[in-house]
């Protein structure tokens, strides 16, 4: 398994669960100094970061790009793949496609988290799931064109009412027949929704495409009450070789959260 740490360049997301903020170059330097394999980037838009600058920063620091988030599409532009209005859904889809075009050349998958939206009176759950399924189907094809993947993230009940557990997520993806869409298993959301984290990961099996490595309270691994030993054991059992990526609150400060993460990563994956 490989280690990654999040970097947010989205001012509107302030207060969110990202370790490093605002300064991409400084984040890359600290990630390298601590020994991370990769960063996971939350850019302010598909065109906001010059790919040549990012390439240089990654190369200079021996880092990979673990994944690229699309949360700004929701947080700033209120774009949702399940919006009632078809024009908004189309804009949301185009937005994610552009992020795929940015991320593809780095070999990085694109995350669908908050952009999945939620069902409401105007868009009942079966309709919302149909909209979401149609969108993931199209994004699967686009990811193929750009030689990358899409990560679909079940969220806890306070953030969506569409798909909250890994087993529902795996069944949803299986029903779509998509080839390049996998689950993003966020251990913080899972701590709220799953009966047992390790069992849920084992059951999701080959659908596990990425892991947000967070403790029960969304702080760095080891700063809450999650037992990571059975979690990592389950990931080993299913042959998971992807990232454990710290999408956690920058507490008590970004560097301490990053340091705690890499220490926990080493302890559990050694
Ligand atoms: C995004 O990865 C996520 O986990 C959501 O909770 C958005 O904050
Ligand atoms: Mn997450």
Structure explained in plain terms:
The protein has 270 residues and is α/β, with parallel strands linked by helices. It has a single domain, classed as Divalent-metal-dependent TIM barrel enzymes (TIM Barrel, Alpha-Beta Barrel). It contains 10 helices and 9 strands. Strands 1-3-4-5-6-7-8-9 form an 8-stranded parallel β-barrel, surrounded by 6 helices. Helix 4 (86-103) runs parallel beside helix 5 (125-145), helix 6 (166-176) packs parallel to helix 8 and helix 8 runs parallel beside helix 9. It is globular, with a radius of gyration of 17 Å.
List keywords for this structure.
eight-stranded parallel β-barrel, binds L-Erythrulose, TIM Barrel, 10 helices, 270 residues, binds manganese (II) ion, alpha/beta
How is the main sheet built?
Answer: 8 strands, parallel, barrel
Beta content: 15-25%
Task: Report low-confidence residues grouped into runs of 5 or more.
Answer: none
Class by SSE composition? alpha/beta
Inertia-based shape: globular
Domain tally = 1
Small-molecule binders here are: L-Erythrulose, manganese (II) ion
What is the string of helix and strand elements? EEHEHEHHEHEHEHHEHEH
The percentage helix is 40-55%
- Radius of gyration from CA coordinates: 17 Å
Which CATH architecture?
A: Alpha-Beta Barrel
Q: Classify the fold: give the CATH topology.
A: TIM Barrel
Q: Average pLDDT, to the nearest integer?
A: 98
The CATH superfamily turns out to be Divalent-metal-dependent TIM barrel enzymes
Give the strand order of the largest sheet, numbering strands 1, 2, ... along the chain.
Answer: 1-3-4-5-6-7-8-9
Output the CATH class name: Alpha Beta
Query: Helix count, per DSSP?
Result: 10
